[in-house]
Structures are given as structure tokens and as C-alpha cells.
């Protein structure tokens, strides 16, 4: 009886320790995901605004085309993770979601569910954060093809992305998500 109790309390202690470790991981990866995606968003937005100011939307499309992915790659190096933008209606085929990503994007479309999530996928910890059409200026390149996107801009978009899906959005729509993949740490 004593032995049994002893092992039961030992088990629950292990469970408590495991839980604490899990919640520390969860908190740490949530915070890391939040700040990395925040930095990326800030850098991209600043760059798009500067490029638009310098050379108009056509130049800004060219800039996004050349710089968006390398910018993610350089931050991925710094933070030792993989940073991606995904969308069900992707412009760049490199941003095409995997099947597991699609399920997350769908769940983010549900009422009040457009918020960050942390999942365990294939031994990794994956952070997702919704990206919304939060500003009217997004519509200059993602709005309706008749009227909101300037014809010259549309021409460059079509030229760079012949299979573009990323138009027809309205303000407030879910545009896609940040996906940040961290390697799961060794259990402690
Ligand atoms: C000057 C035109 C322009 C503006 C303004 C713009 N985008 Fe984009 N967007 C692009 C281009 C070009 C790409 C493809 C980038 C690439 O090749 O990786 C893109 C890609 C994306 C992607 C990645 C998924 C995909 O479709 O490939 C997201 C998410 C996105 N934009 C959201 C936004 C949001 C939100 C705003 C407003 C804050 C915005 N964009 C403003 C041109 C623009």
C-alpha cells in the first residue's frame, strides 16, 4: 500500500514536471513566434512603403518579388527557425500551403478563431499567426482587378506571377498566415 502510494505520488510529480515543461515550451514558442512574425511584418511593410514611395506600386511589386523570400530566409538564419507566409490563394507558388496548413487556415476563418496557434507537427513545433487585409493599401495589390489595382501594377503582377490567385480581397479578410517552424527541443 505504502509502495503503491509512493509510486502514485512519484508519477503525479513526474506528470506535474512534464506539464510545467510543456507550458514553459508553449509560452516560449508562442512569444518567440509572436515577436519573429512581428519583426517580419514590420520589415516587409516598411520596405513595401519605401519602395512604393520611391517608384510607385509597379516598382514595389518588383521589390516584393525579389526581396520577400530572401528577407524571411535571413531572419530564419538569425532565429534558427523556418519562416514562411502561406495562403490558400497564394501569389507566389512558394507560399502554397501544405495539407496541414490548409486545415489551420480554414480554422482561422471561423468566427473569433483568427488568432495564433501552436501545433506539434512531425516532431517540430509550429507557430501560425493570421495575416489579415488590415489596411486599405493592401488592396492596391490584392483588391479587385477592376478598379482597385492599377492596370500597370496588374500587368507586372501577371508577368511575375502568371498563376496569381491573390486578388479579389476586401478589407478585414483573412489573407493568409505566418508559419514559423521550430525544432522541438530534447525533452527534459
Ligand atoms: C505593392 C504591391 C503589394 C502590396 C501593397 C501588398 N502586397 Fe502582398 N504581395 C505582393 C506580392 C508581389 C507578393 C508575392 C511576394 C513573393 O513573391 O513572395 C505578395 C504576397 C503576399 C503574401 C504571401 C502569400 C502569397 O500570396 O504569396 C501575403 C500574406 C500578403 N502579400 C499580404 C499582404 C498584406 C496583408 C498587405 C497589406 C499590409 C499586402 N500584402 C500589400 C504585393 C503586394
Characteristics of this structure?
about 190 residues, alpha+beta, four-stranded antiparallel sheet, 4 helices, 4 strands, elongated, disordered N terminus, binds heme C
Radius of gyration: 21 Å
The count of helical stretches stands at 4
Mean pLDDT: 89
Got a strand count? 4
Walkthrough of the structure:
By secondary structure, the protein is of the alpha+beta class. The chain has one domain. It is built from 4 helices and 4 strands. It has helices spanning 2-79, 99-108, 139-142, 151-160; strands at residues 82-86, 117-121, 124-132, 174-183. A 4-stranded antiparallel β-sheet has the order 1-4-3-2. The radius of gyration is 21 Å and the shape is elongated. The chain binds heme C.
Question: Can you lay out the helices and strands and say which pair or pack?
Answer:
Layout: H1 2-79, E1 82-86, H2 99-108, E2 117-121, E3 124-132, H3 139-142, H4 151-160, E4 174-183
Antiparallel strand pairs: 1-4, 2-3, 3-4
Helix pairs in contact: 1-4
The structure holds heme C.
Short description:
Helices cover 54% and strands 15% of the residues. The chain has helices at 2-79, 99-108, 139-142, 151-160; strands spanning 82-86, 117-121, 124-132, 174-183.
Amino acid at each position: 500500500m505504502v509502495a503503491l502510494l509512493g509510486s502514485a505520488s512519484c508519477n503525479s510529480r513526474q506528470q506535474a514536471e512534464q506539464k510545467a515543461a510543456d507550458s514553459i515550451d508553449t509560452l516560449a514558442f508562442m512569444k518567440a513566434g509572436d515577436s519573429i512574425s512581428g519583426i517580419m511584418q514590420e520589415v516587409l511593410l516598411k520596405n513595401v512603403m519605401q519602395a512604393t514611395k520611391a517608384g510607385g506600386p509597379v516598382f514595389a511589386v518588383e521589390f516584393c518579388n525579389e526581396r520577400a523570400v530572401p528577407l524571411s530566409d535571413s531572419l530564419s538564419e538569425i532565429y534558427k527557425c523556418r519562416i514562411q507566409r502561406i495562403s490558400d490563394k497564394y501569389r507566389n507558388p512558394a507560399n502554397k500551403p501544405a495539407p496541414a496548413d490548409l486545415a489551420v487556415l480554414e480554422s482561422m476563418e471561423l468566427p473569433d478563431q483568427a488568432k495564433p496557434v501552436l501545433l506539434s507537427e512531425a516532431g517540430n513545433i509550429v507557430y501560425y499567426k493570421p495575416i489579415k487585409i488590415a489596411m486599405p493599401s493592401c488592396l492596391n495589390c490584392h483588391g479587385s482587378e477592376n478598379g482597385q489595382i492599377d492596370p500597370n501594377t496588374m500587368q507586372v503582377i501577371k508577368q511575375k506571377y502568371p498563376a496569381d490567385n491573390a486578388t479579389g480581397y476586401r478589407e478585414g479578410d483573412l489573407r493568409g498566415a505566418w508559419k514559423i517552424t521550430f525544432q522541438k527541443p530534447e525533452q527534459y
